[in-house]
Amino acid sequence: MRTAMSRRVVVTGLGAITPIGNSVEEYWESLKAAKVGIGPITQFNTENFKATLAAEVKGFDPKQYMDPKAAKRMERFCQFAVAAAGQAIADAGLDMTKEDPYRVGVSVGSGVGSLQAIERACKTLEEKGPGRLNPLFVPLMIGNMAAGNVSIQYGLKGKSLNVVTACATGTHSIGEAYRSIQYGEVDVMVAGGTEAAVTPTGIGGFAALTALSTSTDPLRASIPFDKERGGFVMGEGSGIVILEELEHAKARGAKIYAELGGYGSTSDAYHITSPAEDGSGAAKAMELAIADAGMKPENVDYINAHGTGTHHNDLFETKAIHLTFGEHAKKLKISSTKSMVGHLLGAAGAVEFIACVKSVENDFVHATAGLLVDDPECDLDYTKVGTAMPVRCAISNSLGFGGHNATLLVKKYA
Q1: Catalytic site residue 167?
Q2: How far, in Å, CA of 66 to CA of 146, rounded?
Q3: Is 306 among the catalytic positions?
Q4: For a Cys staple, 343 with which of 6, 92, 183, 232, CB 3.0–4.6 Å?
Q5: Surface-to-core class of residue 314, CB atoms within 10 Å of its CB (0-12 exposed, 13-18 middle, 19+ buried)
């Protein structure tokens, strides 16, 4: 058996349920067109809420992806994950009847699980008492059930993980899946993140933290790196990828989108919500991912930024990029997918990783939609217009509450 670090990992399948498309093709075409998926919240009455906009998934019917009975035993965040995973498995041409199921694992995280189930249970408890709680309340609510349901739905019996690192969940989930393949524990991992937190407690809680944009203009709400930015916009959805050991992928004739070459993870050890002000934690995560890939900073062409649209995040991430890349920082293309899909919390890093894979595959960098007013403190190229250019190597950053930093490096397969 080869040593762990000699096992190369490639991306062979993609699946996405997003506010701008319920397939990877639709999602990517919308990113290229700088389509903004933000609008007034439809899932509850926002009359007394400071934030009234969100990036909701549109036209999603779980019965298109799973048995109706199975769908009823899943909350929205699980339905998104099962749907996106089904897309990714089909895209990869992964036939589980030909695989050892104990060599195919799952790493799908959710930042908060089902706030909807919690809200319903609290109402029932208050109005009717504990004897009337739904017997399935706990398995509907807990965050690990996204990974569990994906495993059950598709017969995946390898290691099954639920990484929870707030807004870095999706990136860590993919990174830990990558390590699992490198180490030889599995040959294939179904990996990513999922979230559905457009609820009264989700919106109200983040608004109370003053983290959400209170703009009523969908085109001026999620505006990362813009001087007029005022917070993030809640999004929802799921991104799932198929990661595969290279020789396993080649043996079954799989299409290879790109190679996942590096993963870096650090902690700021600084503050429960704010990134380290000098950007050092995020910078180190980028450095580790680049070193893990055996590359140099100047080999990177594009950064998919965490880019939430909060003042501190965008400023400190800019400082982190300067720290890591030095003079090369000025040559980088940088953009924020959140400008179009909002902030998908635990799913953010996963859908952004897919954007990186498509950028590398298609040699195109999508714009930071809505970026109009330059901020002198954010002094890099944040890609106001989508750009066709060689993208040999891209990195994706995620920064989570609690100081969690994660970076993935994607490169052309050769």
Answers
A1: yes
A2: 14
A3: yes
A4: 232
A5: buried
